[in-house]
Amino acid sequence: MNTEIKIHPKLHHIGLVTTDMDVMTEWYGKVLGMTVNHRSKIPMIARITHQGPPFAGFAFVSNDEMDHRIVFFEIPKAAKDSDRFRRTGLQHIAFECENLDDLLGTYIRLKKLGTSPLWAADHGVGISVYYEDPDRNVVELFLYNYGNPWTATEFLRAGRAAIPAHVDLDRMLEARKSGTSPWDLHERAMAGDFAPAKPFDPHTSF
To answer: What's the CA gap between 58 and 73, in Å, rounded?
Structure first.
């Protein structure tokens, strides 16, 4: 048994409190392809006698080989914090796409379903598209511009992190459909070629 050397446990899942389990599981299924692997309700008697947990139910969801990546805890009377962006706590959660076409294709699919992103940006190390779930948690879909985690880490360690370049995804899509490579799209984004007419104000949701 190792009691001296640091181990490196991997992030496995997160837990989120919600007032409406149905709405949240439907949204995460639509946006991220999450499947409900288990869902349970807690009997009222167990809650009021303090013999059970304080929530009304929970659901384990995942979109990969793991049994769960997110656990939703339903508390119907939980108060939504209108000032949450001025408080400490979870800022956003992120999910990695394999390639640029998956990222842009997801944007198109969700747009057709009436789900629009908050904003999109090229951070130098990667391109990100941000959405808000029904409880206003920020969900990021991203991909590495540098192909893999190792090169991304070296990019950051070299002190090359850049001010995000805001991206108009429709303009980027036009360039991609015309045959522009992902790397050239990245360079053009950083040069401001896809800057939206009205930049997103991150103070509204971040």
So the answer is: 5
Which of the four CATH numbers 3.40.1280, 3.50.50, 3.40.1130, 3.10.180 does domain 92-204 have?
A: 3.10.180
Residue 76 is encoded by which pair of tokens? Answer: 């119907």
Rounded Cα distance, 77 and 31, in Å: 26
Give dist(CA 144, CA 142) in Å, integer.
7
pLDDT, one tens digit per residue, over 138-174 is 999 999 998 788 888 888 888 766 678 999 999 999 9
For residue 92, how far is the Cα from the chain centroid? Answer: 6
- pLDDT value at position 37? 96
Q: Is the pLDDT of residue 45 over 70?
A: no
Architecture of domain 14-74: Roll (3.10)
Domain regions of the chain by residue span: 14-74, 92-204
Are domains 14-74 and 92-204 of this chain identical in fold?
yes
Asked if residues 21 and 68 have their Cβ atoms less than 8 Å apart, the reply is no
Give the CA distances from residue 43 to residues 56, 68, 116, 145, 163, in Å, rounded to whole numbers and listed in that order: 7, 23, 37, 48, 50
> Does the CA dihedral 74-75-77-78 come out positive or negative?
negative
What's this model's pTM, rounded to 2 decimal places? 0.87
